[in-house]
Amino acid sequence: MRPVSSAEEVGALLSRSDSSGRRRRSSPVQSASPRPAGCGCGGPRRQSSFRDDVGHAASETYLVTRLTFSLLQYLGLGYRWMSQLLALTIYAILLMPVGYYYFFSSQVRRSIVYGEQPRNRLDLYIPKDINRPCPVVAFVTGGAWIIGYKAWGSLLGRRLAERGIIVACIDYRNFPQGTIGDMVSDASQGISYVCNNIASYGGDPNRIYLVGQSAGAHIAACALIEQAVKESSGQSISWSVTQIKAYFGLSGGIMEGEESLSRYSPEIVVKQSSSQTIALLPPIVLMHGTEDYSIPSSASQTFADVLQQAGAQAKLQLYEGKTHTDIFIQDPLRGGRDPLVEDVLSIIHVDDEITQEKIALAPAPRRLVFEWQLQLARRFSPFYFAVS
């Protein structure tokens, strides 16, 4: 599936200004909202039953279904959209084991409220054993700006939680619920919640990493750069760019354009930013498959070039022969030590020799689905083939 391309749809995305309000500047580790009661190092204990889990699964399914029909009502019931939706549904069914983990694992804290909007929720993936504050990944999922949903990050959450990392998957409003400005505002507010509250769940507020995938890479990059602009100009902030140790952009779709689009094109904003703003940005790692037909790897190459020319710390990591979903879904599902997760871990644990040794000695992650399921899912994937 490709990004929204119609001029009318892009105009609608950008028609409203950023809806976020101003906040008083606070300490980076001061809570932006009340901390959960009864929290120890491992966060609040989950008091749940099978009935609760089934009820939650039903409510989440209802939400996704309702949003899907709302989207189709806006886009129309044309053959192209209906075929893409059917392909996505078959693709998801073939990879159902991931969904079972999301709904029924005791390691997942679902739908934690971080803001006032209906989609202002996030999921936390907590490692089984927390003996000391864990590094944290704040993850913004993809979805072509129209089908993004926090549960899409369950596989990444599972794989990183198995390696001792807390993962916060941030949900946000999609089109037509909100504009690009709303999406960036939601993501920024979710990041703020993580920065200010993650210690309550056993996370280390000084070791937070921002990750975005596909459209989420664009949204997360916008939120990060916008925050750096605010911070460098002395505006009120609720979280600090200095809390983000590194930014990972996976298969990112970076919006281009002029005039009204320029505010949400990270490339253009970086070119126009002051040296003080660029100096605040954390190390940036852009990761992309060379056989990505949904968003060509050249998008990440161009963004990396712009960042480097501006003086930012940026590098590009390419994965030969990998598609848009290979590095994010298929490879982790196969089990073993897949390249992308290992590369992310090598950066997160670069200064932690004890954890590096534990990971090296730990059994490789097990396979989650059969190979025939992956091959069949790939045939149905709406993200695999180029869309003309």
TrEMBL record:
Record's catalysed reaction(s): [protein]-C-terminal S-[(2E,6E)-farnesyl]-L-cysteine methyl ester + H2O = [protein]-C-terminal S-[(2E,6E)-farnesyl]-L-cysteine + methanol + H(+)
A Pfam family of this chain: DLH
Keyword Hydrolase set for record: yes
GO molecular function list: hydrolase activity
Chief localisation class: Golgi
Keywords for this protein: Hydrolase, Membrane, Transmembrane, Transmembrane helix
Region (Disordered): 1-46
Subcellular location: Golgi apparatus membrane
Residue span(s) of domain Dienelactone hydrolase: 271-325
InterPro entries assigned to the protein according to its UniProt record, in alphabetical order: AB_hydrolase_fold, BD-FAE-like_dom, Dienelactn_hydro, GDXG_lipolytic_enzyme
Membrane-crossing residue ranges in chain numbering: 81-103
Domain BD-FAE-like: 122-231
Membrane-protein topology: Multi-pass membrane protein
Entry annotated with the keyword Transmembrane: yes
Domain of life: Eukaryota
EC number(s) given by UniProt: 3.1.1.n2
GO cellular component: Golgi membrane
Family according to the record: Belongs to the AB hydrolase superfamily. Isoprenylcysteine methylesterase family.
PANTHER family listed in its UniProt record: AB HYDROLASE SUPERFAMILY PROTEIN C4A8.06C, KYNURENINE FORMAMIDASE
UniProt name for this protein: protein-S-isoprenylcysteine alpha-carbonyl methylesterase
